Amino acid sequence: MLYHLWVxxxxxxxxxxxxxxxxxxxxxxFAEQEMDSMAASKA
Length: 43
Hints:
It is a single chain. The chain is an all-alpha fold. The longest helix has 22 residues, at 21-42. The chain has three helices and no strands. The chain has helices at 2-9, 13-18, 21-42.
């Protein structure tokens, strides 16, 4: 998941972990939805 955020959105892992917990959770949820959407479009 962090790899996806880094490659697609240029968010470095260290920057991710410095965010408040709520923002991290929101970014993870958005990234998961984005990855699901990408997988669905490939199928």
